[in-house]
Design a protein that fits this description.
With 398 residues, this protein is α/β, with parallel strands linked by helices. Among the domains are: 146 residues, von Willebrand factor, type A domain (Rossmann fold, 3-Layer(aba) Sandwich); 54 residues, no CATH class. The protein contains 12 helices and 12 strands. The strands form 2 sheets. Strands 1, 2, 3, 4, 10, 11 and 12 form a 7-stranded mixed sheet that branches. A 5-stranded mixed sheet has the order 7-6-5-8-9, sandwiched between helices. The protein is globular, with a radius of gyration of 24 Å.
Length: 398
């Protein structure tokens, strides 16, 4: 009996030791959605540089590099450091992974992050009678987007309007279905004209749902343009948008002129896009980015998460640059309630977090940012050890 207990204790000790040494992971999360300076790029490269001797990451730790590009997330395969030194074969393999990662992201320090866009996007355009003064602006935004898309990106265009007497399927029209050809897309955009009918969004959403590229690895979402103050098929549209949310399909909403913002917010899965001339194919909300990043991660207190980002949330209801006092605890409580309502929760399980603020922070004071994120990480059971706009070095991580 005693031998059995001793053996159990011994096995438990081995397991705990194994957990500490083998399963410790470092995630370096690079948010490139707002671009990055050359100096910041070099800093990350130096921070994660691979050395045969005296490496930063020891004890068989796995190191993951992630970058959130403007067109799609990219994850490097983990490279593993073995104690103080690694053999030539493993060193070469790890070095190649590291170099390939930085080759892939280096161009984003040289070109504007919005210059090229690669995604499967469904543009859902309200052409009801109230859109008469806004439709030309929408068409120009679509033309600019088509000009910046990559050859592989597919674009669909759906318009909607309608009357009470129309069958539901005739209240919306598919102008383009997963088209790559720019000339065809521009021709379709030019053909969009305002109607004399009302705003029947539900039919448009239903057709947009049919066009989703379910097997594609590229970002796949709907961008809705509307200035609606009233949605004539509101109950049906709400039912359809709920099916989007249930299947994790994304809708971005661009409000125009005097739109009812709180109404349109109900039909977005990721907030309203106030900068209609700068449509992103990734999420501008760092909170949503972290939520998606952590969904498949089971962090432990042995893990590190290093974040390079502006940390300035862009969601309509929690846009840091439009909020004067983001360091107010009441503001954090509002954001937390909003997240919970949308099924967004966080648990870092005691993981160590290091935040390096990158980019310009003209609109938000770093001290206010720090106060908000300190509340956020504490509430999410994370151990926030660094939050600064100053360069992050290996010494600060050890």
């Amino acid at each position: 009996m005693q031998k059995g207990i001793k053996m159990t204790i011994k096995l438990l000790g081995i397991f705990l030791l194994f957990n500490i040494t083998v399963f410790a992971r470092t995630y370096i999360f690079v948010d490139l959605s707002k671009g990055m300076t050359q100096n910041e790029f070099q800093e990350i490269k130096t921070l994660s540089a691979i050395n045969k001797i005296n490496t930063l990451y020891k004890n068989k730790e796995k190191v993951y590099l992630y970058a959130l590009f403007q067109h799609r997330p990219y994850r490097a395969r983990p490279f593993i450091y073995f104690q103080d030194t690694i053999n030539e074969e493993k060193y070469t393999k790890a070095k190649n992974i590291h170099e390939n990662f930085f080759k892939k992201i280096e161009k984003y320090t040289k070109i504007p992050p919005q210059k090229y866009l690669d995604a499967n996007i469904i543009f859902l355009v309200d052409r009801s009678k109230k859109m008469h003064n806004d439709l030309e602006e929408v068409k120009q935004i679509l033309r600019d987007f088509v000009a910046r898309k990559t050859p592989r990106a597919k674009i669909s265009i759906v318009t909607f309007d309608g009357t009470d007497f129309m069958p539901n399927k005739k209240r919306s029209h598919i102008l383009m279905d997963s088209v790559r050809n720019k000339r065809a897309l521009l021709y379709a955009i030019d053909s969009i004209k305002p109607s004399l009918y009302n705003c029947y969004l539900g039919s448009g959403l239903e057709k947009a749902k049919m066009l989703f590229q379910t097997k594609s690895k590229r970002p796949n979402f709907v961008v809705l343009f509307s200035n609606a103050q009233k949605i004539d098929d509101y109950p049906y549209a709400k039912k359809v948008v709920q099916s989007f949310k249930n299947s994790s399909r994304e809708i971005k909403v661009v409000p125009l002129s005097d739109a009812n913002l709180s109404l349109l917010q109900e039909f977005s899965t990721s907030g309203l896009l106030e900068d209609k001339n700068n449509i992103s194919t990734t999420d501008d909300e760092i909170i949503l980015q972290l939520h998606k990043f952590l969904q498949k991660k089971k962090l432990t207190r042995n893990d590190k998460l290093i974040i390079y980002s502006t940390m300035e949330n862009q969601d309509y209801l929690s846009n840091f640059s439009r909020t004067k006092n983001i360091d107010n605890p009441n503001f954090y409580t509002k954001i937390k309630q909003q997240n919970e309502k949308n099924g967004i929760t966080f648990h870092f399980h005691g993981a160590k977090v290091y935040v390096r603020i990158v980019g310009e922070t003209k609109n938000v004071n770093i001290d206010q940012l720090h106060t908000f994120w300190r509340l956020f990480f504490k509430d999410a059971k994370a151990n926030l050890l660094y939050f600064s706009g100053q360069p992050l070095t290996k010494e600060k991580l050890e």
